[in-house]
Amino acid sequence: MLIGHQATIQRLWGALERDSLHHALLFEGAPGIGKRRLALRLAQAANCEAEVRPCEKCRSCGLIATGNHPDVIMVVPDPEKATATIGVDQIREVVRQSGYHRYNAKKRFIIIDPAEAMQASAANALLKTLEEPPAGTGFILLATHARALLPTILSRCQRHRLAPVTEKELVIWLSGQGIDNASVIARMAEGRPGRALELAQGSLTERAEFRAQALQAMAGSLKETFQFSEALCKGAGRQDWVPKVERLLELFEDLLRDTTILASGLDAPLLNADLQPVLEKWVDALWPGGISACAEAIHEARENLQANVGGRTVVDALLARIRTELGAARKAVLA
């Protein structure tokens, strides 16, 4: 089920009805906000055999939903490679496939997720086809950070920024599925249905455990902090540890958000309400300049991740910076 994004859906479906859908779409938004789900839903609507589209019951809708439709091609990083990137050979292959006669679809879609994972050579190999794709073929690029894409890619795409789903919508959606703690999960998901599902399926407890590990590591010696970093970044390739580093960045973003709410006296619920005494110590240590410094450190860490910098380098620098800004307050969790 796709929830939210009604304005975007209306624009896209309207273009579909007028047969004026742009041949290169870019869906931009936070992880878990519904970019891939929207792309697949659009592919279903374009190829549905029913009168009201998509019906999600016809053969075409079913094949797309299960990832088995030959004319809806998903391009993702190669899991066999150490770096989580989309290489030039992958793009050359889909460019070649785009020139084939469609199997049975009204419209072929090539979905690239995430588009930021394309190597520069891969992006350049896509340019000509992205600008003038074969008749009946459209591209949908999914990106969390569109600014990481080449300007030549961006200039060829029609951009659609997906805003967070309202907390009320998420609560209704989660409650309708019989999920407990719907209001807590909706608040922590921050407008991202995919993230809400992850939390509902057990990662709420995992998040609490991960948060405890991270804060304990920060409270300990520098050696203990770096041992946590080393454990976090273990794996055969980037695909093994990048998601864990992203989770760490999100955790610190949530903690800084709560610190800002407490410091500024805003009337907003905390994502980490059980840690309020700790966060009050963070307010004393970080408000206001330290908040900006930590936020900048998180931003730099995310940019370095996108630039394929090594995990230990990224995480060590981030944790060292936050330790410095917190000072003695980093030990508040031990109190």
Structure description:
It is a single chain. By secondary structure, this protein is of the alpha/beta class. The chain is built from 14 helices and five strands. It has a five-stranded parallel beta sheet, with helices on both faces. β3, α5 (120-131) and β4 (137-143) form a beta-alpha-beta unit. α1 runs parallel beside α2 (35-47), α9 packs antiparallel against α10 and α13 (289-306) packs antiparallel against α14. The longest helix has 27 residues, at 193-219. It is globular.
Architecture blueprint of SSEs:
Elements: H1 6-17, E1 24-28, H2 35-47, H3 59-65, E2 72-75, H4 88-98, E3 108-112, H5 120-131, E4 137-143, H6 151-154, E5 158-161, H7 167-176, H8 182-189, H9 193-219, H10 222-232, H11 238-264, H12 276-286, H13 289-306, H14 311-326
Parallel strand pairs: 1-4, 1-5, 2-3, 3-4
Could you give a short description of this structure?
This protein has 335 residues and is α/β, with parallel strands linked by helices. The protein has helices spanning 6-17, 35-47, 59-65, 88-98, 120-131, 151-154, 167-176, 182-189, 193-219, 222-232, 238-264, 276-286, 289-306, 311-326; strands at residues 24-28, 72-75, 108-112, 137-143, 158-161.
